[in-house]
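Q: Could you fold this chain for me?
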Amino acid sequence: MNTATNIDVLSVFIFLGVFFGLLLSVFYIFKPSANSKANRYQGLMLLSLSLCFMELLLNRTGYIVKVLPLTFSTASLNFIIGPFLYLYIKKSIDQSSSQKEWIHFVFPILYLLYLSFDLIQSNGFKYNCYVISTHPTWQLLNVHTTISNDPLKINQYLDLLLSVQILFYISVSFGKLVKKANEAGKTIFSTKDADIKSLRNAIFHVSMIILIFIFVKIKLHGNAGNYFIGIYVAIFNIITTFRVMNDSTYFERSASFLDISIGKYSKSSLNEVDKLRILNHITLEFANNHYFSNNLASLADLAKKIGESPHHVSQVINEKLNQSFFELLASYRVEEAKRILADKNKNNLTVEEVSETVGYNSKAAFNNAFKRLTDKTPSEYRKNAI
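A: Sure. Below is the predicted structure, expressed as structure tokens.
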């Protein structure tokens, strides 16, 4: 058994893509936001891609020989990328729940069960698969198998099945986005809506990935062509990571890791009159209607109330108030809490009751925000004010 390993520049680049992909997926899946339902599916899609590329990287560098039981471990993940793309697009357009989402995962689960025939094979068998796909000139081991890894003889059609499946989900995702744009009286190519543009770009780049996949399977041997896809996705992962680091409101929009449009608001359709109009609506909701006291307050919900897109509302808050949505929300909540805490007639309210009154779901979150903005705890502020 040849245990030689090799790390080259391409391997390092793909490794960075995998690392940043795994890091981003955690944020997409677990970070609370107005767009969290859509981001969760996007994070799961990115996690699946990253794990697939991790196994690809192990094969390229030869380290798969040291962990042969992991061979084939990510194969079934290829078949959930399409469903996750579709559900990400769908939830970005409409976050309402559906009881039929499970149906998209029936085939991936069935294939995972079928994959058990591969997973139970000996390490010698898995080593030979590695050699055939990556080092065809190496000598194979003499391995005897008692159970076929492909009893139904369908593995030869897997690439075709995967291509058809992802193309199907690309088509239905595209159809949903076209319908959304048409409802606004636009096309997905003429719209100025930043969210639709981002979703359009995500569909385009997944289409490019599947076209690369089909091309390299026809033209190149083994896993050679998959490295092009690894590079393609790695570029997006690295760029998106730096965008997230420099944009506190990134997860509040339908921002796809497969969208590297230059400039957060550089192509915004808003002029100064529009910005002031939106700012007036925002101020009215917060100051007059006490929107901040809603414990379910979110950027998407606020945008819906004032009839604007979340992207435009975020832009106005950033540019005109030099704050993020959550910073604005906290500032109003803390100011209202200060007023209540300083009111002798409301001294009977506990700190927890005050936190609920101004919109917080937990006393701890309220205390942290209050301390950050006033350098005092709510109790300390009340003691000094009364």
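A (continued): The chain has two domains: 9-252, 272-385.
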